[in-house]
Design goal:
single chain, about 180 residues, alpha+beta, Agglutinin, subunit A, four-stranded antiparallel sheet, 2 helices
C-alpha cells in the first residue's frame, strides 16, 4: 500500500476512535436517547440476544432477555420494574416492582435465588430458592426453572397459549378433579 493508502487508513482509525470516545463519555440515558432517535431500531442478530440467565449471571438495569424467536422481550427497566413486551401487542405483564428503588441488576445467584439488587447491592425483590435457570420463552412466559423437576420456582403472570393471553396458575394452586 502506498503512503496515500496508509494516510486514509490512519484517518479512518482516528474517526472511529473519536466516535468511540464520544459515546463512552455520554451518560447511559443520553446514549439510549441517541439510539432511540433512529426511526429504524437496530436489531441484533439472534446470536447476540440472550434468552436465559444461568446461575451466577445477571441482567443489568436497562438490559433485556429475548425469546428465541425474537418476538418477546423481558426488560429490567431503570425504575426497577421488570416488563414483558410482545411484538405488536406491547407490554403484557410486569413484576409490579416499579419505583421500589434504583436497580442495579437482576441476578440468579449460585444458591438458586433470583434477586433484584439496588445500586447499593441491597435486595429489592427476590424469588426462590431452588432456581437453576431463568428462561424467556417463545410464548412470552418468563420462567425460573429448578435443576430437577418440571414445576417452576417462579414465573411471570401472563403468557400466550394458542394465540390467547392467559394467566399462569402455579401447580400447587390448581384444583384437580381427583383432589375434589
Amino acid at each position: 500500500m502506498d503512503a496515500f493508502g496508509w494516510e486514509v487508513v490512519g484517518s479512518l482509525a482516528g474517526v472511529v476512535a473519536a466516535v468511540a470516545a464520544i459515546v463512552a463519555v455520554l451518560p447511559r440515558r443520553q446514549r439510549r436517547e441517541v439510539a432511540s432517535a433512529d426511526p429504524q431500531p437496530t436489531v441484533l442478530p439472534p446470536t447476540a440476544r440472550k434468552s436465559y440467565l444461568s446461575r451466577g449471571e445477571s441482567l443489568l438495569a436497562g438490559q433485556s432477555l429475548y425469546s428465541p424467536n425474537g418476538r418477546t422481550r423481558f426488560t429490567l427497566q431503570d425504575n426497577a420494574n421488570m416488563v414483558v413486551s410482545f411484538d405488536g401487542v406491547g407490554d403484557i405483564c410486569d413484576t409490579g416492582t416499579t419505583n421500589i428503588g434504583q436497580p442495579k441488576c437482576l441476578s440468579l445467584q449460585e444458591d438458586g435465588w433470583l434477586i433484584l439488587y439496588d445500586v447499593d447491592d441491597k435486595p429489592l425483590w427476590k424469588q426462590g430458592p431452588g432456581g437453576d435457570h431463568l428462561n424467556m420463552q417463545d410464548n412470552s412466559h418468563v420462567v425460573l426453572y429448578p435443576a430437577v423437576g418440571a414445576e417452576p420456582v417462579w414465573a411471570t403472570r401472563s403468557f400466550f397459549k394458542a394465540g390467547q393471553l392467559v394467566d399462569w396458575i402455579p401447580l400447587r394452586s390448581r384444583v384437580r378433579f381427583f383432589d375434589v
